[in-house]
Amino acid sequence: MTPYLEIQETLRRAPRRWLVTGVAGFIGSHLLETLLRLDQTVVGVDSFVTGYERNLDDVAARVGADAFRRFQLIEGDIRDPQTCNAAAADADVILHQAALGSVPRSMVDPLSSHAANVDGFVNVMLAAHAAKVPRVVYASSSSVYGDDPSEPKVEGRRGKPLSPYAATKLIDEVYADTFRRTHAIQSVGLRYFNVFGPRQDPAGAYAAVIPRWTQQLIAGEPCEVFGDGSASRDFCYVDNVVQANLLAALAPSDRLGDGVFNVACGSRTSLLDLFELIRSLVAASRPAAARAELKRAAPRPGDIQHSLASIQRACDNLGYRPEFDVPNGMNRTVHFYLEQAERAQRSSGTSEAAEPAREAS
Predict the structure, then answer these.
(1) Which residue of 120, 205, 266, 326 has the fewest CB atoms within a 10 Å radius of its CB?
(2) Helix ranges restricted to H, the chain
């Protein structure tokens, strides 16, 4: 039995009360879904700035009404200490996912990124201390490696941050390490590498490349790449991230070391190869997508050229074993967005067909 299966059995035998911040977001909603399937009780906090009610609706539909009753939503902002204190009360574990993501967003508006990602982080940690929560697992980022040219990225070696977003995540790690010594708060930072999967937002100026390209290919719209497409990333399917969070939440204290771990697959994919994979998956249902080509745009400030993680520390200390590689995860991801598009098309057709009937009556 794998360490992750053992953790799942442990949780089913002894359910816990979890606080998930950013619960209506992409990763937060997947954590919620998994925890409810494991018979856990979950309190979630979300301000719905980057989270969506539709994500919670999707979780409810997938887990069923009985399981969803074990979820309590607090609509609030982690920048408010009172919200954090109320949410953390009686929690056994905190999974802190709430943040303003996106390197480009932080370049345009660093103050908002700092307020959400640093001030909010400190509020969550202090709430954990006040409520005596035994463990906080928080979302860090591969962006903390900055301009470090070495590959693969190893936890003990960092460069200089290349964006305000990266700086906020690095500051969080510094605070977490400090609070470990000054407030005895046990925490684990997970440095996510390019997470993707169902429910990731494809819309807006700061949308991640995978949901954006997928939706554009489905809709027959042009796709754009920043740079020449040779940049590469260690893309990681969201179920692997859920696994890492649960393992980190229950790992023995003596296995945590300095409390930071890479979460990735340990392999990299160029943007050009990524586009070809998504295009082929979409074209299986939408043949016109096979003819789509990438349009090139200037590289964005703050973006790095290559990113590849060493996941050895997470494997050795947490028992992390990524179950989904990029092709398997992408197959599930594209299928999700195709289903969404078909559902929207049916709904639109129904609405249009119903309109004349209302007028005739």
Answers:
(1) 205
(2) 3-13, 26-37, 53-63, 65-68, 81-88, 103-108, 110-114, 120-131, 164-182, 209-219, 238-250, 271-283, 312-318, 326-360
Domain that residue 261 falls in: 3-197+237-266+306-324
**What's the pLDDT score for residue 204?**
65
Q: In which residue ranges of the chain is pLDDT below 50? A: 351-361
Catalytic residues: 165
CATH number of the domain within which 92 lies: 3.40.50.720
Q: DSSP letter for 287, please.
A: G
Q: Which pLDDT tens digit goes with each residue over 221-260? A: 999 998 989 989 999 999 999 999 999 999 999 999 999 9
Is the preceding omega at residue 161 within 30 degrees of 0, hence cis?
A: no
Peptide bond into 301 cis (omega under 30): no
DSSP letter (8 states) at residue 130: H
Q: Give the sign of the dihedral formed by CA 94, CA 95, CA 101, CA 106.
A: positive
Give the three-state DSSP class for 19: strand
Note the pTM of the prediction, 2 decimals.
0.93
Residues of 321-351 as b/e, b for ≥16 C-beta within 10 angstroms? Answer: ebebbbeebbebbbebbbebbeeeeeeeeee
